[in-house]
């Protein structure tokens, strides 16, 4: 069972210092607006690879730039507890230590899986493909910890290629060298995403849930995305003249979109009501959790910021039931304790009040 | 300038060195001043000499005190092999092993359109010219396994493989390494490059 047993913050966002003990299972965090509920969730989101749920730089996470911030905690996983410590000074990217030894983001990704839903994702189905791709990649990362490295490698090579295209560079050897890197990482990205999607679809279809199921497909503009490394390399080489005219790479996994279709109503996700769109996202997160239990034996840590918004009391109660059934340590925020009434004695309750957090009874 | 400000300036310059910050620079300068005859004088004299003589080897890009470095002037090192490295520190790392007996080509960076580093900046024309001139039979690419390193390796291999054998360093299990601690990519590469015992 994956969960954070304790978390300590220093000079992180609104917290000058905080030490908190928690247990596995749901955690309901309530308090007025601007008291630091989301800041706490952001700190927990750093226990997974990447820039956290706000996608902020390390410098943005503190008001004390020179001294910097630190976030640490004891993570219980499949075998033994791990001491995870992160810090950033002078605005530098965060450094990571696991059990007091320097570690990489990939090491962290192998130990810890954290998924989140934040209010800015409420418009995920309506807005640009980038947000959906990021959502897809975070779910994929939970199954394939090395996925992040492939995405970074692909994007690095693509930025270089785009620069050559914009500069009107004609050295075909240089293009070939970059396209070889893009094709290698790109084929891996496509394979990881397809495998993750299969697991998600299967986890959605074989469960009784109050949340709607979405038919999920991956799309690519104009042509089907070349899947194999060789096909992608050839497609990139063939596309060079048109890409040069466009000044960017127009083919590849960076253009894939996640299309969601609300099965019960037979309509695209972007045409559903706000509440239904949110329910679809929750359904996917829960399916991701169930698939991870099947895959790794342990559910992910969930961060559900203002999750009660847009959900009626019945759906809210259903969500709490599903989280308890999943066994996830789910950090949920809301302005009122009453929003979590249906959770009853199954959860832990934290009241947040200007930098101080107190455990309260159900 | 007062003596105090000279020392402050020395601390400020030292703190710009890789691996040093203001605090460690202060400690180093204090130590140098206390060990004036054993450390400070020899250091300042050696630094002045190096500042006057250090330059890039015109042939391979290594750092030398002559126009051509010791490796390029030594006939013993003309083995028909050139090892291509990104930086002089990589050349030193290869030399520490004592395993490689040939010569080097130091690129001084990797291909990067974003940083305006192209084939000309890496001295690749010079490298091509060295193949007939030094009777080179094999070019060994010892570049970092990063995106930039691999792109550069791919480019050089493409450029030279019609004329000379191009090889690259193996990727796999490090000496004394434990499989359980290796990343999936390294284990995959090691498996693909397996060999008879």
Layout of helices and strands:
The complex is a heterodimer of chains A (362) and B (197).
Chain A: E1 3-12, E2 15-21, E3 27-30, H1 37-45, E4 69-76, E5 82-88, E6 95-98, E7 101-102, H2 105-111, E8 114-117, H3 129-143, H4 147-167, H5 172-205, E9 214-219, H6 229-246, E10 257-262, E11 267-268, H7 274-296, E12 301-304, H8 313-326, E13 330-334, E14 348-353, E15 356-360
Parallel strand pairs in A: 3-13, 3-14, 8-12, 12-13
Antiparallel strand pairs in A: 1-2, 1-4, 4-5, 5-6, 6-7, 9-10, 10-11, 14-15
Chain B: H1 3-14, H2 22-34, H3 36-53, E1 55-56, E2 63-64, H4 70-73, E3 81-85, H5 88-97, E4 103-106, H6 124-133, E5 138-142, H7 147-160, E6 165-168, H8 184-192
Parallel strand pairs in B: 3-4, 3-5, 5-6
Antiparallel strand pairs in B: 1-2
Helix pairs in contact in B: 1-2
Note down, in words, how this protein is organized.
- The complex is a heterodimer of chains A (362) and B (197).
- In chain A, the strands form three sheets. In chain A, strands 2-1-4-5-6-7 form a six-stranded antiparallel β-sheet, with helices on one face. A six-stranded mixed β-sheet of chain A has the order 8-12-13-3-14-15, sandwiched between helices.
- Chain A starts with a strand and ends with a strand.
- Chain A folds into two domains: 1-113 and 300-362, Rossmann fold (3-Layer(aba) Sandwich); 122-297, RecF/RecN/SMC, N-terminal domain (Glutathione S-transferase Yfyf (Class Pi), Chain A, domain 2), CATH 1.20.1050.
- Chain A is globular and about 65 Å long.
- Chain A has eight helices and 15 strands.
- The mean pLDDT of chain A is 92.
- Chain A has 362 residues and is α/β, with parallel strands linked by helices.
- Helices cover 39% and strands 22% of the residues of chain A.
- Chain B is of the alpha/beta class.
- Chain B has two domains: 3-53, Helicase, Ruva Protein, domain 3, CATH 1.10.8.420; 76-168, Dna Topoisomerase Vi A Subunit, Chain: A, domain 2, CATH 3.40.1360.10.
- Chain B has helices at 3-14, 22-34, 36-53, 70-73, 88-97, 124-133, 147-160, 184-192; strands at 55-56, 63-64, 81-85, 103-106, 138-142, 165-168.
- In chain B, the strands form two sheets. Chain B has a four-stranded parallel β-sheet.
- The longest helix of chain B has 18 residues, at 36-53.
- Chain B is globular, with a radius of gyration of 21 Å.
- The A-B interface holds A 106, 146, 149, 153, 156-157, 159-161, 163-164, 167, 169, 171, 173-174, 176-178, 180-181 and B 111-114, 118-119, 147-148, 150-152, 154-155, 158-159, 183-185.
């Amino acid at each position: 069972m994956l969960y954070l047993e304790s978390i300590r913050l220093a000079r992180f966002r609104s917290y000058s210092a905080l030490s908190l003990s928690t247990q596995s299972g749901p955690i309901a965090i309530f308090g007025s607006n601007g008291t630091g509920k989301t800041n706490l969730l952001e700190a927990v989101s750093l226990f997974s690879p990447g820039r956290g749920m706000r996608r902020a730089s390390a410098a943005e996470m503190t008001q004390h730039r020179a001294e910097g911030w630190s976030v640490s905690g004891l993570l219980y996983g499949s075998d033994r507890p791990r001491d995870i410590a992160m810090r950033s000074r002078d605005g530098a990217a965060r450094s990571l230590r696991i059990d007091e030894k320097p570690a990489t983001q990939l090491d962290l990704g192998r130990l810890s899986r954290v998924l989140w839903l934040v209010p800015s994702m409420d418009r995920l189905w309506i807005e640009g493909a980038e947000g959906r791709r990021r959502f897809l990649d975070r779910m994929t990362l939970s199954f394939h910890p090395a996925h992040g490295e492939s995405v970074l490698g692909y994007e690095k090579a693509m930025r270089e290629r785009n620069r050559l295209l914009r500069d009107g560079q004609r050295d075909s050897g240089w293009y070939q060298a970059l396209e070889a890197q893009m094709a290698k990482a790109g084929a891996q990205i496509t394979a990881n995403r397809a495998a993750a999607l299969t697991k998600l679809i299967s986890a959605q279809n074989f469960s009784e849930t109050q949340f709607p199921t979405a038919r999920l497909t991956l799309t690519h503009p104009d042509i089907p995305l070349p899947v194999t490394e060789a096909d992608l390399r050839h497609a990139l080489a063939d596309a060079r003249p048109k890409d040069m005219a466009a000044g960017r790479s127009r083919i590849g996994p960076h253009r894939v979109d996640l299309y969601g279709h609300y099965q019960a109503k037979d309509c695209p996700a972007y045409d559903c009501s706000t509440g239904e769109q949110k329910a679809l996202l929750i359904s996917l997160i829960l399916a991701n959790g169930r698939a991870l239990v099947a895959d790794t034996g342990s559910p992910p840590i969930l961060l559900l910021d203002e999750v009660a918004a847009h959900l009626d009391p019945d759906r809210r109660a259903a969500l709490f039931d599903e989280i308890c059934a999943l066994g996830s340590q789910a950090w949920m925020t809301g302005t009122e304790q009453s929003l979590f009434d249906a959770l009853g004695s199954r959860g832990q309750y934290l009241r947040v009040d200007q930098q101080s957090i107190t455990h309260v009874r159900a | 300038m007062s003596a105090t400000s000279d020392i402050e300036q020395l601390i400020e310059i030292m703190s710009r060195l890789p691996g040093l910050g203001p605090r460690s620079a202060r400690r180093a300068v204090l130590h140098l001043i206390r060990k004036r005859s054993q450390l400070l004088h020899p250091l300042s004299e050696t630094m002045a000499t190096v500042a006057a003589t250090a330059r890039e080897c015109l042939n391979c890009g290594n750092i030398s005190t002559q126009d051509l470095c010791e490796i390029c002037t030594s006939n013993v090192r003309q083995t028909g092999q050139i090892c291509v490295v990104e930086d002089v520190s990589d050349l030193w790392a290869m030399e520490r092993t004592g395993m490689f007996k040939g010569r080097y080509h130091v690129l001084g960076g990797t291909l990067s359109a974003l940083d305006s580093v192209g084939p000309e900046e890496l001295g690749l024309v010079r490298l091509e010219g060295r193949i007939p001139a030094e009777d080179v039979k094999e070019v060994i690419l010892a570049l970092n396994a990063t995106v930039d390193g691999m792109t550069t390796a791919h480019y050089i291999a493409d450029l030279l493989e019609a004329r000379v054998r191009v090889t690259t360093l193996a990727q796999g299990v490090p000496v004394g390494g434990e499989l359980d601690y290796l990343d999936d990519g390294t284990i995959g590469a090691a498996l693909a490059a397996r060999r008879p015992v």
